């Protein structure tokens, strides 16, 4: 932690160098964070003042010792003495690696793979005449699906908010305004409440905020009640019910922006344990007016059909859950080679 000399308690990526030292990047984009180097006894901090393009970075180290930092707006390279910034090299640092020549490789944000050695950029993309080979197939058996999505109809949606005259969503909000806490993503989630015209946001401390999209201003809501537990499927705005639903590992919480209140309906469906499931991902279906989520079969269990996915529907008005059906997962032959039991585990 910071007590030991780290620039921030929350790290993002860690990489070991050939000389046995450690490099760590921080997701906190503020002065004093950036990249840290541990030589076995002391942490050394590098920030934009030392040449980093940004103080938020993930790190990747090559076998020959080249250190790269990947930012949202480009990359930086450390040559052993100083950092050199290269804006505009855009990729996903979480999946970056460095080859034997010191070239940085990572998924490009606009598709394909990008390589950069500090001078030349290499882009690898699938030719337009080719299509990706299918490695998995997802199938829903005909005739076994619950018809609830075809028999349930969404109610009328509340009127959508409009920005007041004189406001512009393209104008940045106050630079010094109070903001949500940053940190680990176990609770970070957002959903747009179109009736309120604001984004409902839960920060890493579990506090409820709203972002006024007309003025780009953060509002700490201090609601009655609170979201309970950590989120597994995030937040989803149920349009016709005009509430934001939080699906967690063990709880359902419902936020009503009109009354600024969190409530927890009774729950005997989601959770960790026999007969319960943990929802993963959520979306509102505007035709049926239901919230759809999924459950991975075999999560935390030893079952034959582990890896299949169940699709569930949730009606927040009646607090009812309904199993829609199962989507079978079939790994390709190439994926099966070596160890079939991996797929069960």
**Shape assignment:** globular
Which residues sit in consecutive blocks of at least 5 with pLDDT less than 50? 333-345
Number of strands: 25
User: On the 0-100 scale, what is the average pLDDT?
Assistant: 85
Major β-sheet profile: 5 strands, antiparallel
Using only C-alpha atoms, the radius of gyration works out to: 24 Å
Range of helix content: under 10%
Which percent band covers the strand fraction?
Answer: 35-45%
| SSE ordering | EEEEEEEEEEEEEHEEEEEEEEEEEEHH
The end-to-end span amounts to 33 Å
User: How many DSSP helices?
Assistant: 3
What is the SS-derived class?
A: mainly beta
The main sheet orders its strands as 13-25-24-23-22
Q: Could you please describe the fold and organization of this structure?
A:
The chain is mainly beta. Helices cover 3% and strands 37% of the residues. The protein contains 3 helices and 25 strands. It has a 5-stranded antiparallel beta sheet with strand order 13-25-24-23-22. A 4-stranded antiparallel beta sheet has the order 1-2-3-4, with no helix packed on it. The protein starts with 10 loop residues before the first strand and ends with a helix.
């Amino acid at each position: 932690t910071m007590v030991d000399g780290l620039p921030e308690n929350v790290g993002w990526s860690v990489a070991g160098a050939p000389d046995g030292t450690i490099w760590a990047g921080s997701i906190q984009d503020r002065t004093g964070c950036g990249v840290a180097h541990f030589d076995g006894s002391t942490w050394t901090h590098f920030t934009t003042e030392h040449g980093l393009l940004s103080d938020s970075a993930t790190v990747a180290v090559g076998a020959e010792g080249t250190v790269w930092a990947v930012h949202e707006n480009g990359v930086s390279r450390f040559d052993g003495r100083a950092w050199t910034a290269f804006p505009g090299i855009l990729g996903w640092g979480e999946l970056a690696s460095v080859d034997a020549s010191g070239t940085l490789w990572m998924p490009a944000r606009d598709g394909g793979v990008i390589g950069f050695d500090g001078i030349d950029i290499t882009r690898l993309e699938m030719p337009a005449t080719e299509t990706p080979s299918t490695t998995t197939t997802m199938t829903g058996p005909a005739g076994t699906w619950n018809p609830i999505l075809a028999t349930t109809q969404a109610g009328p949606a509340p009127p959508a908010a409009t920005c007041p005259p004189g406001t512009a969503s393209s104008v940045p909000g106050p630079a010094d305004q109070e903001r949500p806490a940053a940190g680990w993503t176990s609770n970070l989630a957002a959903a747009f409440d179109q009736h309120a015209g604001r984004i409902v946001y839960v920060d890493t401390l579990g506090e409820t905020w709203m972002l006024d999209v007309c003025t780009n201003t953060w509002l700490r809501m201090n609601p009655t009640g609170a979201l309970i537990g950590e989120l597994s499927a995030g937040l989803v705005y149920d349009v016709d019910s005009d509430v934001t639903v939080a699906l967690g590992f063990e709880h359902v919480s419902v936020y009503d922006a009109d009354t600024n209140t969190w409530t927890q309906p009774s729950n005997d469906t989601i959770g960790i344990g026999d007969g319960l499931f943990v929802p993963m991902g959520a979306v509102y279906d505007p035709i049926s007016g239901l919230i759809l989520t999924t459950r991975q079969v075999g999560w935390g269990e030893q079952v034959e059909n582990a890896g299949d996915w169940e699709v569930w529907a949730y009606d927040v008005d009646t607090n009812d859950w309904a199993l829609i059906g199962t989507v079978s997962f079939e790994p390709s032959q190439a994926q099966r080679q070596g160890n079939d039991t991996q797929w069960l585990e």
